[in-house]
Design a protein that fits this description.
eight-stranded mixed beta sheet, 36% helix
């Protein structure tokens, strides 16, 4: 009996077309940053401290190491050593993330620019997106430049009728986000949402004008979160406070508390210059540009992420 022919897991023409699209997008991204004076860097994929986000689980790599959830801390260490403009395109890893918009390994673009804040970063992000869509001839329906902006309070006012920064309620915030705000964002072709409540600051700078908000923004295209950016926190003592707060929050949620990154904290003690940073999901960007509804649709190996039934 002849062996059964191998099962064709993906259509060859689809894969070849996707190779071309991904190459065009990555080429356009690199061209934008090189044109604007950035240097491309690489940082470790295995790290001792995977970050502060209490809702993100890192993938253990053995010997007390984890696969990086983001290159953030190492890239900021380079900024502490005098780097002016740096970017990186790297795999990032998140345990237990699987769904239409999530996969446990994905491609991340992260960049840092000395001497600017989050508002200048909004402009730079729009310029990057305009360059990529023009170079790749991929423009989602309704997407226009400059990108529209609204504060998070304005978003919640329009969607559910209250201002989170004025009367912070964590349970209500996330419940309204899941039930009403996220579907509302899906009706907007694109929007930059800025000025998040200071309770969601992570490692962003709290506003000097209004302590209830932090200098942070996210870009959404048809409701899909594409990037998350900050005016970066520079105060050494406040960094330690944020690490401690994150550890306590994770413990309350029954999650393992990650040890603080002492190399990073020592670098910040020596001086982190004023800068802004942005983390952008490349696979999600390609989803938005091509109209894909599932992140597996822009993967060259979707079968690797399909769980057996």
């Amino acid at each position: 009996m002849r062996p059964a022919a191998p099962v064709r897991l993906t259509d060859d023409s689809r894969v070849l077309a996707l190779i071309e699209v991904r190459d065009r997008v990555l080429t356009a991204i690199r061209a934008f940053f090189r044109h604007n004076g950035y240097r491309e860097v690489t940082t470790p994929v295995m790290v001792r401290c995977p970050g502060l986000d209490r809702h993100v689980e890192a993938v253990p790599a053995g010997n007390g190491l984890f696969l990086a959830t983001s290159p953030e801390l190492h890239m900021k260490r380079l900024m502490c050593r005098g780097a002016e403009r740096i970017f990186q395109i790297t795999p990032a890893f998140r345990a237990e993330e699987q769904g239409a918009h999530h996969t446990c390994e994905f491609l991340m673009l992260e960049w840092y620019h000395a001497g600017i804040g989050y508002r200048e970063m909004m402009q730079e992000t729009g310029d990057l997106l305009e360059h990529v869509t023009s170079s790749c001839r991929l423009l989602p329906a309704g997407l226009e430049f400059p990108l529209p902006r609204m504060s998070l309070d304005q978003l919640y006012e329009q969607a559910v009728g209250w201002h989170p920064s004025e009367r912070w309620n964590e349970d209500r915030y996330f419940r309204d986000w899941a039930v009403t705000v996220e579907p509302y964002l899906q009706t907007l072709p694109a929007v930059i949402v800025y000025d998040f409540p200071s309770a969601l600051a992570a490692l962003s700078q709290v506003s000097s004008v209004n302590k209830r908000i932090c200098e942070r923004f996210e870009l959404f295209i048809n409701g899909l979160e594409i990037c998350n950016a900050y005016t970066e926190l520079t105060d050494p003592e406040e960094h330690r406070v944020r690490f401690e707060q994150a550890a306590r929050s994770r413990t309350r949620l029954g999650r393992p508390a990650y040890a603080p990154d002492e190399h990073f904290l020592q670098a910040v003690d020596a001086g982190l210059r004023a800068c802004a940073g942005n983390a952008l999901g490349v696979d999600r960007l390609i989803m938005a540009l091509t109209g894909a509804s599932h992140i597996q649709d822009v993967s060259l190996f979707p079968e690797d992420w399909q769980h057996p039934s």
